[in-house]
Amino acid sequence: LVSVLIGVAVAAPSAPGFLGTFELGCVAALAYTKIHSQEFAIAYAIVTHMLQVVMIVACGIWTLRLRRLSFAELSASAEENA
Fold first, then answer.
1. What is the per-residue pLDDT for 19?
2. C-alpha span between 80 and 73 (Å, rounded)
3. 1 with 25: CB under 8 angstroms?
4. Interior CA angle at 35 toward 5 and 3, to 5°?
5. What residues does each domain of the chain span?
6. Which residues, other chains included, contact 19 with Cβ-Cβ below 8 Å and sequence gap of 6+?
7. With the C-alpha atoms ordered 4, 5, 10, 12, is the resulting torsion angle positive or negative?
8. Is 61:45 a contact under the CB 8 Å cutoff?
9. Where are the alpha helices (DSSP H) in the chain?
10. Longest dimension (CA), the chain
11. CA angle (37 as vertex; 40, 25 as ends), nearest 5
12. How many CB atoms lie within 10 A of CB 53?
């Protein structure tokens, strides 16, 4: 249920990284279940989102190192293709 409501929430136009909409969907889903307090829901939403962002960034950095690319090379390639 939490994943479904988060998915619906982030489908709406939002800031990069779904900042705010992810937390709203998570808090709304946990409030609907009435299992935990609102404070727990907010903390859970923030920590979960933070962990997801950290994992995505870590995978990106790992992939860059695996392909022996630097951020400068990646940026230069993006500018050439723009």
1. 86
2. 11
3. no
4. 20
5. 2-81
6. 49
7. positive
8. no
9. 2-11, 21-33, 38-66, 71-81
10. 52
11. 70
12. 14
User: Who's near 27: CB < 8 A, 6+ residues apart?
Assistant: 38, 41, 42, 45
pLDDT at 17: 81
Length of the chain counted residue by residue:
82
| Whether the Cβ atoms of residue 27 and residue 38 lie closer than 8 Å to each other | yes
Query: How many angstroms separate the first and last alpha carbons of the chain?
Result: 40
Eight-state DSSP code of residue 12: S
Q: Look at residue 35 in the predicted model and tell me its pLDDT.
A: 84
Cα four-point dihedral sign 72, 68, 62, 10:
positive
Question: What separation in angstroms does the CA of 17 have from each of 10, 11, 33, 81?
Answer: 9, 12, 26, 23
Reported pTM: 0.78
Contact between 36 and 44 (Cβ < 8 Å):
yes
Indicate if the pLDDT at residue 55 is higher than 80: yes
